[in-house]
Amino acid sequence: MVGRLQDKIVLITGGASGIGLATARAALREGAKVVITDRNVKGGEAAIAELGDGAEFLAQDVTREERWVEVIGHIVEKYGRLDGLVNNAGCGSLHNIEDETLEGWRFVHAVNVESTFLGCKYAIKAMKQTGGGSIVNVSSVAGLSGAADLAAYCSAKGAVRLLTKSVAMWCAQQKYEIRCNSIHPSFLYTPMVQQMIDIAPDPEKMRRRLERTAPLGRMGKPEDAANMVLFLLSDESPFVTEAEFAVDGGTTAQ
Ligand code: NAI
């Protein structure tokens, strides 16, 4: 059976956990060869043990430019091409504008935005040599509307949203056949969200609050985002670029 991503070479950052791992599973199921990267080496190795044939793990801190050059260089050398990049690695920071520190602000922007800038920059370099590709940037609902206690995160994910559009326009103008889109999840039950629940003064209250955020009245699953990414990486979306896709149970419609 031919899969929806048959023989495509796909790089997924933050692939040891949550949305990245669910996307790796889905891409493999659809016939892709998948390289996952993560700064969590133990988690990455455990993920590879589960994913099996067709998947490879590379340690990567996505904030480091020289590591991006090495990771993409390795992929091009080993597989001959890069067809898909999912800039998924990210981190949150539960602080409002008054209590966020400059250090925290810079860290959140490095992990969420600078990484996406670097990923797009070096992926384009590889993809344009082999006829194009698809880049999916994982933003957030917090990149579409404000949240009082997520000052740095809203800023960073908002930047990811507009960086995506600039990248898409540039690639279209240059006729690279590289599409670039963003997805905007909220709240999908992953280790990151579990951590938000755990550190809350009243975890049960926090869990109920997160569940009530979406009109659907529950949290989504990492697979919900993975299915959207699958569509955007596949040849089912050749005319889709510069677009933003909420995976949020209706949250942004309110
Ligand atoms: P997660 O915490 O389960 O996975 C994130 C992965 O990124 C982890 O494996 C972590 O080790 C890795 N990572 C973090 N910093 C890194 C770095 N500097 N270099 C390399 N890897 C790094 O979180 P989840 O929920 O799967 O999040 C994935 C993406 O989705 C993030 O960008 C997050 O901001 C975004 N997101 C998630 C939502 C949700 O409801 N789960 C909602 C909105 C956005």
Secondary structure layout plus pairing:
Blueprint: E1 9-13, H1 18-29, E2 33-38, H2 41-51, E3 55-59, H3 65-79, E4 84-87, H4 102-127, E5 133-138, H5 151-173, E6 178-185, H6 191-199, H7 203-213, H8 222-233, E7 244-247
Parallel strand pairs: 1-2, 1-4, 2-3, 4-5, 5-6, 6-7
Helix pairs in contact: 1-8, 3-4, 4-5, 6-7
Bound molecules: 1,4-dihydronicotinamide adenine dinucleotide (NAI).
Residues 13-14, 16-20, 38-40, 43, 60-63, 88-91, 111, 138, 140, 185-188, 190-193, 222 line the site of 1,4-dihydronicotinamide adenine dinucleotide.
Structure overview:
The chain is of the alpha/beta class and 254 residues long. It contains eight helices and seven strands. It has helices spanning 18-29, 41-51, 65-79, 102-127, 151-173, 191-199, 203-213, 222-233; strands spanning 9-13, 33-38, 55-59, 84-87, 133-138, 178-185, 244-247. A seven-stranded parallel beta sheet has the order 3-2-1-4-5-6-7, sandwiched between helices. β1 (9-13), α1 (18-29) and β2 form a beta-alpha-beta unit. The protein starts with 8 loop residues before the first strand and ends in a 7-residue tail after the last strand. Residues 13-14, 16-20, 38-40, 43, 60-63, 88-91, 111, 138, 140, 185-188, 190-193, 222 line the site of 1,4-dihydronicotinamide adenine dinucleotide.
Characterize the largest beta sheet: strand count, sense, and whether it forms a barrel. Answer: 7 strands, parallel
**Shape, per Cα inertia axes:** globular
Count of helical regions? 8
Mean pLDDT rating: 98
Please indicate the percent range of residues in DSSP E strands (runs of 2 or more). 5-15%
